[in-house]
Specification:
By secondary structure, this protein is an alpha/beta fold. It contains 19 helices and 37 strands. A seven-stranded parallel β-sheet has the order 7-10-6-13-15-16-26, sandwiched between helices. It has a seven-stranded mixed β-sheet with strand order 19-18-24-20-21-22-23, with helices on both faces. A hairpin with a 2-residue loop joins strand 11 and strand 12. The chain is globular.
């Protein structure tokens, strides 16, 4: 082709290419959204025709944007009972148009949330737990009899003895739920497990896939069975993990009825539980008639009207349901706590006074105390060569990967017949042991990294193993790295009770302050969440790893997922004792009676044995015995929560839609500092301020006197200093004045405590202040 012909040819070719690109049809990317309208106005008793009318109205609404046929195809959930809204697959541009409609409170992506377990991974045990119930209290509360506790999680394993209906009476007449077993006829409910539902359309829309196991409320993960049985499992004698921790298993409210709401599936890119499914479960749980909802999941903090758990919780609380949530496992970073709404009870995780010690004896006569639940043991008193896993590095691996015992990083020739010391972090704890076993190691010592501090978790390792703390880890690495022929022996684990100090905060437990509403302290409370033994699925091994073919009836798991249902069980007892109490009253009873000392009578510490603060533990470690008789309570109504939303800046139209009826925000400025919460938080104290609280007497006539522990650099005074109550239900208000002392240059949070006492009751509130 000559240059004269080539030039026009290439110009023509370029024109055709550009034309094809310009005229190529565009395919807009679609994703799933939740469109939230607030509350329904059709009241508590909802008929099927009411639900149908709501669904039709949702089709009409979306049809005004897409056309009715496309709208019906796009909507995969219509929330018809108590929560008004729908979930649909939309283009971003369509979602943006919908967001501007005056009927819409909020629209947000159907995003995934996480279960709050530490993967590779106690029961409320009367004899051994860190939150011991006295027999008289449990009997007085009838073991939570006829309270209905719902659980949003991975479902339930119905064959577990923890859900046996032995000695259970008739199902309460108020119950409206069902046993959804249309796709799994082997799944059965009974007079204990009175209901089960599954929700997976949001998961399918968010991940693009749906495993057949999700078409059933059956738990194929273990997490849901564990949390539900911790809250309300029936009495099961002889429960243990490979013989360890043997005793009678029972939940916090062992005679309560339970209902499972499966909203989570296998992790996809770290996401397990999707917003659209969570809202659907809340809507049905309110309709079904639960008294308590236990929610051991969460995500990154977002504004409350874009948060499915916060939205669902608000609707539940407005119907008198207590909602208990896990604080998250993103500690020890500050501001990492999730589930931040004041209508939720948010629970951190701490240890209990039970351990499963497995000692590591070294050739230099040192012995280090770790923990394990491994059913395998080394020959008695036989020492083996011990090396750092970094010294067993495969030729093509890095020392960093090898010391973490990552898959493919270890050389069998270097590891065979030895005990490996692996560093905690990045990969699952039990997987490190599996990798050690695969290259012929006879045992593993798992040493904490600096972030994990003194937090030790008892896992069902696949080889003889012991998990040791950071300080001992430093010592063992020094020994193996600088000794000529290091040797070691790992003892078989045992069960040890009444250990000290206990409790202390778990390193993984998420920490305040509250990043959405800084005037509200979160977490509210802490409870046992480390090495908790409870019921499990038989569809997984105790480690939830593919390689683990073992099966257990009970398992040891750690996380705020485990501490949350401890509190849910206690709430069940309180609901039985005081059926007329509001959710806020029950939260107050739990918070104001909490303990801030361990069993050595020392202040609670964190996983580094440094002083813990209310940003770690909220009001303290839960004490169910004292919670049953709090003396005074700080109460709140549904309208108080609406005022709270006014103070956050939500407009009256939004709040009216949230409440289902017209609402007008108070004309006077609302101070969040005066919100009648059982804790007092002032995140920006400039000079001085005065806050108001109101307490209600729920005990005998008495006179209460105040005692204040001042935060460092802050002077606190209370007026009046005495409160006299002549009858049950009487309310009294008081003012708390705080002033920055001269010379105080601190810019971080400081902490104090305010306690009202009549000599019998001690009604205590943390004071959290940050000067500016």
């Amino acid at each position: 082709m000559t240059p004269e012909i080539a030039a026009p040819f290439y110009l023509l070719l370029l024109f055709l290419i550009l034309s094809s690109l310009l005229h190529r049809p565009t395919f807009a990317f679609k994703k799933s959204y939740v469109v939230y309208f607030g509350a329904h106005s059709h009241g508590k008793d909802v008929s099927s025709s009411d639900c149908d009318q709501v669904t039709e109205s949702h089709y009409d609404f979306l049809g005004s944007f897409l056309g009715r046929d496309k709208a019906k195809d796009a909507i995969f959930y219509s929330y018809t009972r108590h929560i008004n809204g729908f979930a649909a697959t939309l283009e971003d541009e369509e979602a943006a148009q919908i967001a501007n409609h005056p009927k819409v409170v909020s629209i947000f992506p159907n995003e995934g949330r996480k279960l709050h377990t530490t993967r590779s991974w106690d029961f409320l045990e009367l004899e051994t737990d860190g939150v011991i119930h006295s027999s008289s209290i449990w009997n007085k509360a009838r073991f939570g009899e006829d309270t209905i506790i719902g659980n949003l999680d991975t479902g339930v394993w119905p064959e577990s003895q923890s859900f046996s209906d032995e000695e259970m009476g008739p199902i309460p007449s108020k119950w409206k739920g069902i046993c959804e077993n249309d796709a799994d006829h082997s799944f059965h409910c009974n007079k204990k497990l009175i209901g089960a539902r599954y929700f997976n359309k949001g998961y399918a829309a968010g991940t693009g896939s749906l495993n057949s196991s999700l078409n059933s409320p059956r738990d194929t993960d273990g997490h849901g069975s564990h949390t539900l049985s911790t809250a309300a499992g029936n009495f099961v004698p002889g429960a243990s993990v490979f013989g360890y921790g043997n005793g009678t298993a029972k939940g916090g409210s062992p005679r309560a009825r339970v209902a499972a709401y499966k909203v989570c599936g296998p992790p996809v890119a770290g996401n397990e539980c999707f917003d659209a499914d969570i809202l659907a479960a809340f809507d049905f749980a309110i309709h079904d008639g639960v008294d308590v909802l236990s929610v051991s999941l969460g995500g990154n903090p977002v504004p409350f009207i874009n948060d499915s758990v916060a939205i669902g919780s608000l609707h539940a609380v407005r119907h008198g349901i207590v909602v208990v949530c896990s604080a998250g496992n993103s500690g020890p970073a500050n501001g990492s706590v999730s589930n931040l709404a004041p209508w939720q009870i948010t629970v951190g995780a701490s240890t209990m006074d039970r351990q499963f010690p497995s000692y590591v004896f070294l050739g230099n006569k040192m012995h280090l105390k770790g923990e394990s639940l491994s059913p395998k043991a080394l020959p008695n008193n036989k020492f083996f060569a011990i090396i750092s896993a970094a010294d067993a590095k495969a030729a093509n691996a890095s020392a960093v990967d090898a010391i973490l015992c990552k898959a493919g990083s270890l050389d069998p020739k270097k590891a065979n017949g030895k005990i490996l010391v692996c560093l905690r972090g990045v990969t699952d704890r039990v997987d490190k042991g599996e990798q050690a076993a695969l290259v012929g190691a006879v045992g593993m010592v798992l040493a904490n990294d600096v972030l994990s501090g003194n937090e030790i978790l008892a896992d069902a390792h696949v080889l003889p193993a012991s998990h040791i703390n950071y300080t001992d880890g430093v010592a063992i690495f020094k020994y193996v790295n600088y000794s000529r022929s290091p040797m070691a022996y790992i003892t078989r684990p045992t069960t040890q009770l009444r250990t000290k100090p206990a409790p202390f905060m778990a390193a993984f437990s998420s920490v305040g302050p509250n990043t959405i509403a800084p005037d509200i302290l979160k977490p509210d409370i802490t409870a046992p969440g480390v090495s908790i033994i409870a019921a499990y699925t038989e569809a997984q091994g105790p480690t939830n790893e593919v390689f683990d073919t073992r099966r257990v009836l009970f398992n040891s798991v750690s996380g705020t997922s485990m501490s949350c249902p401890h509190v849910s069980g206690i709430v069940g007892l309180l609901k039985t004792l005081y059926p007329s109490w509001s959710p806020a009253a029950i939260r107050s009873a739990i918070m104001t009676t909490a303990q801030t000392q361990d069993n050595s009578k020392e202040p609670l510490t964190n996983a580094y044995y440094l002083p813990a603060t209310p940003l770690n533990f909220g009001a303290g470690h839960v004490d169910p015995n004292r919670a049953m008789d709090p003396g005074l309570i700080y109460d709140l109504t549904s309208n108080d929560y609406l005022k709270f939303l006014c103070a956050l800046g939500y407009n009256e139209t939004q709040i009216s839609m949230l409440s289902g009826s017209h609402y007008t925000c108070p004309k006077a400025n609302i101070s969040l500092a005066n919100f009648n919460y059982p804790s007092i938080t002032v995140p920006m104290l400039n000079g001085s301020t005065t806050v108001t609280r109101t307490v209600k007497n729920v005990g005998s006539p008495a006179t209460y006197s105040v005692h204040v522990q001042n935060p460092v650099g802050i002077s606190v005074s209370v007026s009046p200093e005495k409160l006299m109550f002549r009858k049950v239900g009487q309310q009294k208000s008081f003012k708390v004045s705080m002033k920055i002392e001269e010379g105080n240059n601190r810019s971080d949070y400081v902490f104090g405590r305010l306690t009202w006492s009549d000599g019998k009751h001690y009604v205590s509130s943390p004071i959290v202040v940050k000067a500016v």
